Amino acid sequence: MLETPEELFRALVEDHGAHPRHAQALDPADARADGHNPMCGDRVALTLRYAEAAPTTIADCACRTRGCAICTASASILAGLVRGKEKAAADALFTAFRDACVSGEPLAETPMLDAEEREVLEALTIIHASPLRVKCVTLPWHTLHAALTGATEKQHDLKVGPAREASA
């Protein structure tokens, strides 16, 4: 049993960084976005597929990353967390996570997460103590936001391409 958030953070980065889940491109995909952190070279390509019966529900999410273990682990965790969530809930999760990583404040209320999911996400927010690494952990989340909303993120100097409709 891991005792501290730091131990959980380290274990998550080691596990998901070395063995990322959901690391393939979805084809076909309903939305996609690409993210790049020019400060360190991290890159994320995120694809989403929505449920046929409920087009506002994320049925599947995949993130391909090229970069550090922190970025890779964050993308792997993100892809698992947003599956089955409504688009609005996933975007609210982006905002809560980004804000906690930047401010160091506790993760905002996240009723869309169960206790274990919240503990995992909360462990990643300890990165706020290393401001240069905040960009690494939040890049996949900014890329998710771009895929969900079609927005181009500029916060934290991250270059995130707008979502593109996937070709049928």
Structure description:
44% of the residues lie in helices and 16% in strands. It is α+β, with helices and mostly antiparallel strands and 168 residues long. It has one domain (5-149): Sufe protein. Chain: A, CATH 3.90.1010. Residues 162-168 have low confidence and may be disordered.
List keywords for this structure.
Putative iron-sulfur cluster assembly scaffold protein for SUF system, SufE2; disordered C terminus; 5 strands; NIF_FeS_clus_asmbl_NifU_N; single chain; 5 helices; iron-sulfur cluster binding; Sufe protein. Chain: A; five-stranded antiparallel beta sheet; iron ion binding; 168 residues
In brief:
GO terms for molecular function: iron ion binding; iron-sulfur cluster binding. The chain has 168 residues and is α+β, with helices and mostly antiparallel strands.
